[in-house]
Amino acid sequence: MKLTFIGGGNMAVAILGGLVQRGYRGQDVLVIEPDQAKREELQASWQVHTAEPGAPLPASEVIVLAVKPQQLRQVATAIANQVGNALVISIAAGIKLDALSRWLGGHGRLVRVMPNTPALVQAGISGALAADSTSNADRQLAEDILSAVGEVVWVEKESELDGVTAISGSGPAYVFYFMEALQAAARAQGFAPETARKLAYQTFAGAVKLALESPDDADTLRQKVTSKGGTTERAINALETSQVRATIIAAASAAAARSRELGEELGRDPQE
């Protein structure tokens, strides 16, 4: 299978690395990337072919659009007459399928994806939506590629991708925010920076591992740690008094709203 990435940033590199680790040949990949140093790095690391933007696209079974949302219209219109019958996968946040199809001259084999940064360590989760004209075989092909960097969840409505963006797309930042706070709490208890970091990070890593491997849901697991009248109960009460749960829900709602706004803003053509 011939695969073309347009954009050689972190997410493209994550997917490429996951595929190579699964035995995919770097020689079958072309990466279009404006930065010469990045092109040289990609060639050295993965033995892929690289080219500057504007270079002719070869015939490819799959084209992955891995550019910033603000760049997608320009990129898509520039390659519209070179896409052929390729499956096009877009990982640009917010841009809706109808806008992408329009920019690609009515191309119908489209999958829109919202990945997240843990894909960089093959521990991501991607929300994916296929255009109506995309076949089940195309969906499977997209999933085979995306699963190289983690799990894949398919949604049936475009609006659900805004929710995916709010929960798993932006979610790592919420987790890192809480980790920062827990590390700061450890420092406030007098621990040295490295000890505080280890306590905070490993607590998260262990709790997530336990949650993933346990048949219990998060509420049950929390209750098992929270003894009546104990230290954890007092901490949870402080979090509830400060409405931390409601704030997290509100934060995710704000992220979803911004995802919808970006889709509307960036999906308009200049004359609209």
The strand count comes to 8
Number of helices: 11
- Gross morphology is elongated
- Number of domain units: 2
CA-CA gap between termini: 38 Å
Structural class: alpha/beta
Strand content: 5-15%
CATH topology of the largest domain: Rossmann fold
Indicate the percent of residues in helices.
Answer: 40-55%
- Tell me the Rg in angstroms: 21 Å
Sheet with most strands: 8 strands, mixed
CATH architecture of the largest domain: 3-Layer(aba) Sandwich
Rounded mean pLDDT is 94
Low-pLDDT segments: none
Provide the CATH top-level class of the largest domain. Answer: Alpha Beta
Please write the string of helix (H) and strand (E) elements.
Answer: EHEHEEHEHEEHEHHHHHH
Please give the order of strands in the largest beta sheet: 3-2-1-4-5-6-7-8
CATH homologous superfamily label of the largest domain: NAD(P)-binding Rossmann-like Domain
Q: How would you describe this structure to a colleague?
A:
The chain has helices spanning 10-21, 36-46, 69-79, 97-103, 136-146, 158-169, 171-188, 193-213, 218-225, 231-241, 244-267, and strands spanning 3-6, 29-32, 49-51, 62-65, 87-90, 110-114, 124-130, 150-154. By secondary structure, the chain is of the alpha/beta class. The two termini are 38 Å apart. It is built from eleven helices and eight strands.
Notable traits:
alpha/beta, 2 domains, ProC C-terminal domain-like fold, Rossmann fold, 272 residues, 8-stranded mixed beta sheet
